[in-house]
Amino acid sequence: MASEQDELPPDSVGADFAEWIEQMPSGVDPVVEAARQRIGRIARQFGRVLERVADRQGVTVGDWAALSVLQRSGPPYERTPKQLADALGLTPGTISVRIDRLLRAGLVEPAPAADGRSRPVRLTAEGRRLWSDATAQRTIEDRRLFERALNREELDHLNTLLAPLLAGLEAEFGPAPRHDRLRPGA
């Protein structure tokens, strides 16, 4: 693995770092800025993994995110449109369009409403299969990308370093959403 790591080109932050230092205003810590830039860029690149896998499955990343909310809700794998919208940070109109698309694709179906006002949906067997296949593919892609750059010990160390950073951010801003908040239309 170390020989593979030596073959990787420098990352975009490292390549531009010397130029950044000269252009940064006073008071900006270049080491903090470099770490923040790397974390942000890594998150965006993992977003590209989601897009690639979703495309292979014939759904959008947003559709997959909705299926994830339903799957993670546990049996009977159902939620109201409001619950889905809240979990995904979407407007009622956007979630309505998404639910309609998932209904037409046979990935969700109407579920009985307890109060007659809301119209919950639940995963179909096909929706659960697609979610499972997509999640397995994403995990394989993630593992391949991590193993390309880090061995298991380094990955464990990375998790050890990231955990207190996330805990500190959550202490300041509240718990991070469990589901990705996607850009509008995704």
Identify the quaternary structure here: single chain
Mean pLDDT: 87
Query: Roughly what percent helix?
Result: 55-70%
- What's the architecture of the largest domain, going by CATH? Orthogonal Bundle
Tell me the number of structural domains: 2
Backbone CA Rg: 20 Å
The CATH H-level superfamily of the largest domain is Winged helix-like DNA-binding domain superfamily/Winged helix DNA-binding domain
Structural class of the helix and strand makeup?
Answer: mainly alpha
**Number of E strands:** 3
Largest sheet: 3 strands, antiparallel
Q: Any idea of the CATH class of the largest domain?
A: Mainly Alpha
Describe, in plain words, how this protein is organized in 3D.
- The chain is mainly alpha-helical.
- The chain has two domains: 12-149, Arc Repressor Mutant, subunit A, CATH 1.10.10; 150-180.
- Helices cover 68% and strands 4% of the residues.
- The chain is built from eight helices and three strands.
- It has a three-stranded antiparallel beta sheet.
- Helix 3 packs across helix 7 and helix 4 (61-72) crosses helix 7.
- The longest helix is centred in the N-terminal third of the chain and has 28 residues, at 30-57.
Any chance you could write out the topology, listing elements then pairs?
Blueprint: H1 2-7, H2 12-23, H3 30-57, H4 61-72, E1 78-79, H5 81-88, H6 92-104, E2 108-110, E3 121-123, H7 125-149, H8 152-173
Antiparallel strand pairs: 1-3, 2-3
